[in-house]
Amino acid sequence: MFLFWLFSGRYFVKVAWAWTLWLLLPFIAVTTYQFAKSKFLYGPTKSVLMVLRRVSALLVGTAVWYVCTRLFMYVENLTGTCSTSGKLGDPRRLYATKQECHQDNGIWNGFDISGHCFLLSYCALMIVEEVAVLEGLSIDQNSKLHVVINVLFVSLCFLTMIWVFMFLCTAVYFHDFSQKLLGVLIGLSAWYATYRFWYLKPFSPGLPLPNIPLSSKKYSYSR
Protein backbone atom coordinates (compact mmCIF):
# COMPACT_ATOMS: atom_id res chain seq x y z
CA MET A 1 0.00 0.00 0.00
CA PHE A 2 2.81 2.40 0.88
CA LEU A 3 4.67 1.73 -2.40
CA PHE A 4 1.43 2.22 -4.30
CA TRP A 5 0.95 5.54 -2.53
CA LEU A 6 4.43 6.67 -3.56
CA PHE A 7 3.82 5.73 -7.19
CA SER A 8 0.32 7.18 -7.34
CA GLY A 9 1.31 10.28 -5.39
CA ARG A 10 3.77 11.22 -8.08
CA TYR A 11 1.29 10.96 -10.93
CA PHE A 12 -2.02 11.73 -9.26
CA VAL A 13 -1.77 13.71 -6.04
CA LYS A 14 0.92 16.10 -7.27
CA VAL A 15 -1.45 17.14 -10.07
CA ALA A 16 -4.73 16.37 -8.30
CA TRP A 17 -6.35 19.61 -9.39
CA ALA A 18 -5.37 19.00 -13.03
CA TRP A 19 -7.00 15.53 -12.99
CA THR A 20 -10.13 16.93 -11.33
CA LEU A 21 -10.31 19.85 -13.76
CA TRP A 22 -9.79 17.60 -16.77
CA LEU A 23 -12.84 15.45 -15.90
CA LEU A 24 -15.13 18.08 -14.38
CA LEU A 25 -14.84 20.50 -17.32
CA PRO A 26 -16.59 18.29 -19.92
CA PHE A 27 -18.99 16.90 -17.31
CA ILE A 28 -20.17 20.35 -16.22
CA ALA A 29 -20.35 21.61 -19.79
CA VAL A 30 -22.41 18.69 -21.12
CA THR A 31 -24.78 18.30 -18.18
CA THR A 32 -25.39 22.03 -17.79
CA TYR A 33 -26.16 22.47 -21.49
CA GLN A 34 -28.58 19.54 -21.43
CA PHE A 35 -30.13 20.77 -18.18
CA ALA A 36 -30.67 24.26 -19.61
CA LYS A 37 -32.37 22.89 -22.73
CA SER A 38 -34.53 20.21 -21.10
CA LYS A 39 -35.55 21.88 -17.83
CA PHE A 40 -35.48 25.61 -18.59
CA LEU A 41 -36.22 25.26 -22.33
CA TYR A 42 -33.41 27.70 -23.13
CA GLY A 43 -32.23 28.29 -26.67
CA PRO A 44 -28.66 27.47 -27.79
CA THR A 45 -27.26 30.94 -26.98
CA LYS A 46 -28.73 31.13 -23.49
CA SER A 47 -27.74 27.54 -22.79
CA VAL A 48 -24.12 28.29 -23.74
CA LEU A 49 -24.14 31.32 -21.43
CA MET A 50 -25.38 29.11 -18.61
CA VAL A 51 -22.57 26.64 -19.36
CA LEU A 52 -19.99 29.43 -19.21
CA ARG A 53 -21.39 30.59 -15.88
CA ARG A 54 -21.19 27.11 -14.36
CA VAL A 55 -17.75 26.40 -15.82
CA SER A 56 -16.51 29.54 -14.06
CA ALA A 57 -16.75 27.48 -10.85
CA LEU A 58 -13.62 25.72 -12.09
CA LEU A 59 -11.89 29.09 -12.41
CA VAL A 60 -12.85 29.78 -8.80
CA GLY A 61 -11.49 26.38 -7.80
CA THR A 62 -8.24 27.08 -9.64
CA ALA A 63 -7.90 30.39 -7.82
CA VAL A 64 -8.55 28.66 -4.47
CA TRP A 65 -5.91 26.02 -5.26
CA TYR A 66 -3.33 28.61 -6.33
CA VAL A 67 -3.85 30.99 -3.41
CA CYS A 68 -3.88 28.25 -0.78
CA THR A 69 -0.78 26.46 -2.08
CA ARG A 70 1.11 29.76 -2.20
CA LEU A 71 -0.07 30.51 1.32
CA PHE A 72 1.18 27.13 2.56
CA MET A 73 4.59 27.76 0.99
CA TYR A 74 4.74 31.22 2.56
CA VAL A 75 3.90 29.87 6.03
CA GLU A 76 6.50 27.11 5.71
CA ASN A 77 9.19 29.59 4.63
CA LEU A 78 8.20 32.04 7.36
CA THR A 79 8.32 29.49 10.18
CA GLY A 80 11.24 27.36 9.00
CA THR A 81 14.95 27.08 9.65
CA CYS A 82 17.59 25.23 7.67
CA SER A 83 19.80 22.49 9.09
CA THR A 84 22.98 21.84 7.11
CA SER A 85 25.98 19.62 7.60
CA GLY A 86 28.55 22.40 7.31
CA LYS A 87 32.02 22.21 8.84
CA LEU A 88 32.67 23.57 12.31
CA GLY A 89 33.94 27.12 12.19
CA ASP A 90 32.23 27.93 8.90
CA PRO A 91 30.04 31.04 9.07
CA ARG A 92 26.41 30.11 9.47
CA ARG A 93 24.32 31.13 6.49
CA LEU A 94 20.76 32.33 6.87
CA TYR A 95 18.29 30.83 4.41
CA ALA A 96 15.13 32.68 3.46
CA THR A 97 13.32 29.86 1.68
CA LYS A 98 13.06 26.09 1.60
CA GLN A 99 14.37 26.07 -1.95
CA GLU A 100 17.60 27.85 -0.97
CA CYS A 101 18.09 25.37 1.86
CA HIS A 102 17.67 22.36 -0.42
CA GLN A 103 20.12 23.81 -2.92
CA ASP A 104 22.80 23.48 -0.22
CA ASN A 105 21.61 19.93 0.64
CA GLY A 106 20.03 21.16 3.86
CA ILE A 107 16.91 20.04 5.69
CA TRP A 108 14.16 22.64 6.10
CA ASN A 109 12.19 22.48 9.34
CA GLY A 110 9.03 24.55 9.14
CA PHE A 111 5.29 24.32 9.70
CA ASP A 112 4.26 22.44 6.55
CA ILE A 113 0.47 22.64 6.22
CA SER A 114 -0.62 19.49 4.43
CA GLY A 115 -1.34 20.53 0.86
CA HIS A 116 -2.42 16.97 0.08
CA CYS A 117 -5.07 16.95 2.82
CA PHE A 118 -6.32 20.34 1.65
CA LEU A 119 -6.44 19.54 -2.05
CA LEU A 120 -7.77 15.98 -1.81
CA SER A 121 -10.62 16.97 0.52
CA TYR A 122 -11.49 20.01 -1.60
CA CYS A 123 -11.42 18.06 -4.89
CA ALA A 124 -13.54 15.22 -3.51
CA LEU A 125 -16.18 17.59 -2.12
CA MET A 126 -16.28 19.57 -5.35
CA ILE A 127 -16.84 16.42 -7.42
CA VAL A 128 -19.65 15.30 -5.10
CA GLU A 129 -21.33 18.71 -5.45
CA GLU A 130 -21.07 18.75 -9.24
CA VAL A 131 -22.35 15.23 -9.91
CA ALA A 132 -25.51 16.14 -7.97
CA VAL A 133 -26.82 17.62 -11.23
CA LEU A 134 -27.74 14.08 -12.31
CA GLU A 135 -30.53 14.11 -9.73
CA GLY A 136 -32.44 16.61 -11.85
CA LEU A 137 -31.35 15.54 -15.32
CA SER A 138 -33.49 13.42 -17.62
CA ILE A 139 -31.84 11.86 -20.68
CA ASP A 140 -32.93 9.22 -23.16
CA GLN A 141 -31.22 5.95 -22.27
CA ASN A 142 -30.50 5.12 -25.91
CA SER A 143 -28.82 8.42 -26.75
CA LYS A 144 -25.07 8.87 -27.26
CA LEU A 145 -25.17 11.71 -24.74
CA HIS A 146 -26.29 9.25 -22.09
CA VAL A 147 -23.20 7.12 -22.77
CA VAL A 148 -20.88 10.13 -22.62
CA ILE A 149 -22.31 11.32 -19.31
CA ASN A 150 -22.14 7.79 -17.88
CA VAL A 151 -18.46 7.49 -18.82
CA LEU A 152 -17.67 10.87 -17.25
CA PHE A 153 -19.70 10.03 -14.13
CA VAL A 154 -17.96 6.67 -13.61
CA SER A 155 -14.57 8.31 -14.20
CA LEU A 156 -15.33 10.98 -11.59
CA CYS A 157 -16.47 8.32 -9.10
CA PHE A 158 -13.26 6.37 -9.67
CA LEU A 159 -11.20 9.54 -9.29
CA THR A 160 -12.99 10.36 -6.03
CA MET A 161 -12.15 6.90 -4.67
CA ILE A 162 -8.49 7.51 -5.51
CA TRP A 163 -8.58 10.88 -3.73
CA VAL A 164 -10.13 9.28 -0.63
CA PHE A 165 -7.53 6.49 -0.65
CA MET A 166 -4.68 8.98 -1.09
CA PHE A 167 -6.14 11.07 1.71
CA LEU A 168 -6.12 8.09 4.08
CA CYS A 169 -2.52 7.25 3.15
CA THR A 170 -1.48 10.85 3.79
CA ALA A 171 -3.29 10.83 7.13
CA VAL A 172 -1.44 7.69 8.23
CA TYR A 173 2.08 8.22 6.92
CA PHE A 174 2.80 11.93 6.49
CA HIS A 175 2.78 15.26 8.34
CA ASP A 176 2.00 16.08 11.95
CA PHE A 177 -1.57 15.94 13.19
CA SER A 178 -1.88 19.73 13.40
CA GLN A 179 -0.60 20.13 9.83
CA LYS A 180 -3.08 17.59 8.50
CA LEU A 181 -5.96 19.02 10.53
CA LEU A 182 -5.30 22.55 9.32
CA GLY A 183 -5.07 21.36 5.72
CA VAL A 184 -8.44 19.61 5.98
CA LEU A 185 -10.07 22.60 7.70
CA ILE A 186 -8.90 24.93 4.93
CA GLY A 187 -10.24 22.52 2.31
CA LEU A 188 -13.61 22.30 4.08
CA SER A 189 -13.70 26.09 4.51
CA ALA A 190 -13.05 26.63 0.80
CA TRP A 191 -15.87 24.22 -0.11
CA TYR A 192 -18.30 25.76 2.39
CA ALA A 193 -17.50 29.34 1.39
CA THR A 194 -18.24 28.56 -2.26
CA TYR A 195 -20.97 25.90 -2.50
CA ARG A 196 -22.78 26.67 0.74
CA PHE A 197 -22.50 30.46 0.71
CA TRP A 198 -21.25 32.34 -2.37
CA TYR A 199 -22.81 30.09 -5.03
CA LEU A 200 -26.23 30.72 -3.49
CA LYS A 201 -25.90 34.39 -4.48
CA PRO A 202 -27.04 35.78 -7.87
CA PHE A 203 -23.59 37.02 -8.91
CA SER A 204 -21.73 33.71 -8.72
CA PRO A 205 -21.12 30.56 -10.79
CA GLY A 206 -24.26 29.15 -9.20
CA LEU A 207 -25.05 25.64 -8.02
CA PRO A 208 -25.29 22.57 -10.28
CA LEU A 209 -29.07 22.49 -9.68
CA PRO A 210 -30.21 26.12 -9.84
CA ASN A 211 -33.64 27.06 -8.48
CA ILE A 212 -34.29 23.54 -7.18
CA PRO A 213 -34.56 23.29 -3.37
CA LEU A 214 -32.52 20.48 -1.83
CA SER A 215 -35.64 19.11 -0.13
CA SER A 216 -37.46 18.66 -3.46
CA LYS A 217 -34.73 16.90 -5.44
CA LYS A 218 -35.86 13.80 -7.29
CA TYR A 219 -33.59 11.35 -8.95
CA SER A 220 -34.66 11.21 -12.60
CA TYR A 221 -31.43 10.37 -14.42
CA SER A 222 -31.91 7.09 -16.27
CA ARG A 223 -29.10 4.59 -15.99
Automatic annotation (TrEMBL):
InterPro entries noted in UniProt: FIT, FITM1/2
Matching Pfam families: FIT (PF10261)
Any one Gene Ontology BP term: phospholipid biosynthetic process
Topological type in the membrane: Multi-pass membrane protein
Domain of life per record: Eukaryota
Any one Gene Ontology cellular component term annotated for this protein: endoplasmic reticulum membrane
GO terms of molecular function: coenzyme A diphosphatase activity
Name recorded for this polypeptide: Fat storage inducing transmembrane protein 2
Organism in which the protein naturally occurs: Bubo bubo (Eurasian eagle-owl)
